[in-house]
Amino acid sequence: MTNKLYFVLIILGLSSGLVCAQDFVKTSALFFRTNENSHTGRLNIIQDPSLDTLISRYISGKKKLYENAGYYGMEGFRIQIYNSSTRNARDESGKVRAEFMSKFPGIVSYQLYADPGWFKIRVGDFRTKSEAIKLLLSVSKEFDAYIVPDFINFPDLNLK
Predict the structure, then answer these.
(1) What pLDDT, on the 0 to 100 scale, is given for residue 38?
(2) Beta 146-152 vs 74-84: how paired, if at all?
(3) Structural domain for 116, as ranges
């Protein structure tokens, strides 16, 4: 009986050590900047420590979800300007992308392939649909365009 009790205690001790090995993210670490200059202030966050646990769980869960799916980024929207599965769709998509890049040089474009043979051209990285609508109004004059949900690249927050 005591051998079984010792065995159970050892198993519980080892499993609790594995649970504590997860990454933990503090809220203050999310807002930390390495490029300090004289014009920046200091941010002090006063909050319940359980919020750090919730934020850490959310971040690790999303990271695992996206890594398992093969994506790096966040959920957002893009504008699709081309979608075809015809025999010469690869060449046509390249031409459409080149035309878009010449007419809208400051906007990033992506050439995508989806099984079973669909070639797509999507443009922009928008966090909200209202941001995408601004560009859609000007792009739709030149191309047959519409907004689609997609995984977008993380925005560079230091540009603003």
Answers:
(1) 59
(2) antiparallel
(3) 74-153
Domain count, the chain: 1
Inside any domain, residue 143: yes
Name every residue whose Cβ is closer than 8 Å to that of residue 28 and which is 6 or more positions away in sequence. Answer: 43, 45
- What one-character DSSP code corresponds to residue 48? -
Residue 116 is assigned to a structural domain of this protein? yes
Helix (H, G, I), strand (E, B) or coil at 75: strand
Residue 124: which CATH number? 3.30.70.1070
Partner residues linked to 77 by β-bridges: 126, 149
Position 61 in a domain = no
Tokens linked to 23: 């990454």
Q: How far apart (Å, rounded) are the C-alpha atoms in residues 160 and 147?
A: 24
Is there a domain that residue 42 lies in? Answer: no
Among residues 69, 141, 83, the alpha carbon closest in space to that of 111 is found at 83
**Section 38-65 average pLDDT:** 75
Predicted TM-score (pTM) of the model is 0.58
Residue 57 has pLDDT above 90, yes or no: no
Whole-number percent of the chain with pLDDT over 90: 21
